[in-house]
Amino acid sequence: MGNSSIIQQTIVYIENNLHEELTLDSLARYVGFSKYHFHRMFQKETGITVSEYIRYRRIANSANMLLYTEKRIIDIAIYYRFETQESFTRSFKRYYELPPGQYRKIMGKLTTKREETLMEKDQAVKGWQLSGSHPFHYKMGLDRKVFHKGTTSGYLMSTQVQSQDEFATVMQQFKAEKYLGKRLKLSGFLKSEKVDGVCGLWMRVDDSLGDVLQFDNMSDRPIAGDTDWNHYSIVLDIPENSAVIAFGVLLVGKGQVWMDELKFEVVDNKVPTTNIDFSVDLLDEPINLSFEE
Length: 293
Prior knowledge:
By secondary structure, the protein is α+β, with helices and mostly antiparallel strands. Helix content is 31%, strand content 32%.
């Protein structure tokens, strides 16, 4: 099992047990590593420590409960393992710059107004475009109720898909010049619901003629069905003749996928690439022409 799979296994466990006691020791034992090795591995893969991940996921879930439930602040704090309401308030202010009570009062009104407005018009997502084989059978937008960190996630969902052959993607593209000769990692958190095909990250590197130099769409590790938030990544080399880097999130068939905290980072050659090699080894001569073998 590779490091990415181990971290994904750990995150599934964390997400299912955010209201329980979670320690570095217990998580390391869960995946069968020393706590020091596990700590380094988790931080290298996700960019943050495991304790920081647990803290901000508890706070993010708390923010959701403040807006969409009437639970008392002290009850929310205790549920997510904070010893006192004061310690919960300090942690909450670190991420949202408001104490929980004010956040519920101020953001609750803003959220209601946003939702009323969004019901009247289609959502546009700054910087992103909708593409694919049948983009008119899908919808992209912003979700302020389901998110991994902060206050908002992006989503892509089917609306009138007829078959699993149909697909859509939310995507961007940018110039490759800054990354020529480097190894680039795209990572982020995805969540899926009722995906009857597959979904996942994708990334492509093209030259100036539009020829594909590097590509990965997670076809060898697809996401399907119902999955909670988890961390996924793609690593590609950016050859010297690269011109454009395109990336996004793909949904094939029906369902919905959410995306949050996408980021790019340059990594060293110790990090293996996930490039899909489409080249085929040529035979020295034709074989089995009579189909008897």
